Amino acid sequence: MLRVIAGLLTPKTGEVTVNGQLLTPGTYAPKTGALINAPVFLPNLSAFSNLSLLAKIKKQISADDIKHWMKQLELDPEDSTPVKKFSLGMNQKLGLIQALMEKEDVILLDEPLNGLDLKSKKLVLQLLETLHQEKPATTFVIVSHDKFFQDFATRFLYIDGDTITERGSFDDQLL
Predict the structure, then answer these.
(1) What is the DSSP string of 101-146?
(2) What's this model's pTM, rounded to 2 decimal places?
(3) Which Pfam families match (predicted)?
(4) How far is 53 from 140, CA to CA, in rounded Å?
């Protein structure tokens, strides 16, 4: 579902509109940040170097912005360790920063708390809440089995195969 919303896959039926733009084959969702599946980076570069390369695509944020984001999730921008030596949690934090750092209008997150310890999970939730307060029109689509999102979410959709149903709250009995 996230890949369809992002414009990475074409739906078999129906159509997808993101911020008023119909996604046709070959087009991508406008102003969208995404972390779908496990993040992949250039393995021999540092976290800061990877994020800097990604930031050059749209040229919306500075090196200082990247450093700020990294510090918020307790990654050291001065650390030259190549990302291939990162733990699952460190790699997940890097993927989250990449998805959030440009403060896009739509944020797609697939199991964003995967591999994170309790402290880091709380940091991510605080970061998402702060981003939402700074830019309340941001739409977050978060796929998660983690109850940490039950107080953050405003809608709960459950996907079972090709069936989507809406529920009033997080229902762990369905898991």
Answers:
(1) TT--SEEEEESTTTT--HHHHHHHHHHHHHHHHHSTT-EEEEE---
(2) 0.88
(3) ABC_tran
(4) 24
Tell the burial category of 92 from Cβ atoms under 10 Å away from its Cβ (0-12, 13-18, 19+). buried
Helix (H) or strand (E) holding 91: helix 88-100
Number of H helices, E strands in the chain: 5, 7
Strand order in the sheet with 32-35: 32-35, 106-110, 139-143
Q: 168: buried, middle or exposed (CB in 10 Å: 19+, 13-18, 0-12)? A: exposed
SS3 34: strand
Structure-token pair, residue 12? 């078999």
